[in-house]
C-alpha cells in the first residue's frame, strides 16, 4: 500500500487518502491522530485505535 505524505512541521504530516489508510506506515511513523478533510464518508475500522476527526468539505476548483 502506498504512503504519500510530507512532513510539514514537527510531527505534522500532510498526505493522501491512501496514506491515511496505510496502517503499517502510520504505525512505523507513530502517527496517532488523523484529521481528514474530504467530501465523502470514510470507512471505519473497529481495530484502529487512532484518534480521528473527519471534516466533510466540498472541494471545488473555484473555491479558495
SSE inventory with pairings:
Blueprint: E1 5-9, E2 12-15, H1 17-21, H2 23-28, E3 33-37, E4 51-55
Parallel strand pairs: 3-4
Antiparallel strand pairs: 1-2
Can you give a write-up of this model?
- With 64 residues, the chain is of the alpha+beta class.
- The chain has one domain.
- It is 17% helix and 30% strand.
- It is built from 2 helices and 4 strands, in the order E-E-H-H-E-E.
- A two-stranded antiparallel sheet has the order 1-2. The protein has a two-stranded parallel ribbon with strand order 3-4.
- A hairpin with a 2-residue loop joins strand 1 and strand 2.
- The longest helix is centred in the middle third of the chain and has 6 residues.
- It is globular and about 35 Å long.
- The termini are far apart.
- The model has no long low-confidence stretch (mean pLDDT 88).
- InterPro entries: Prot-tyrosine_phosphatase-like.
The CA-CA distance between the termini, in Å, is 31 Å
Element pattern in H and E: EEHHEE
Number of helices: 2
Content of β-strand: 25-35%
> What is the residue-mean pLDDT, rounded to a whole number?
88
* Residue windows where pLDDT falls under 50 for at least 5 positions: none
For the biggest sheet, the summary is:
2 strands, antiparallel
Count of discrete structural domains? 1
Calculate Rg over CA atoms: 13 Å
Overall body shape = globular
Instruction: Report the structural category.
Output: alpha+beta
- The side-by-side strand order for the widest beta sheet comes to 1-2
Kindly state the number of beta strands.
4
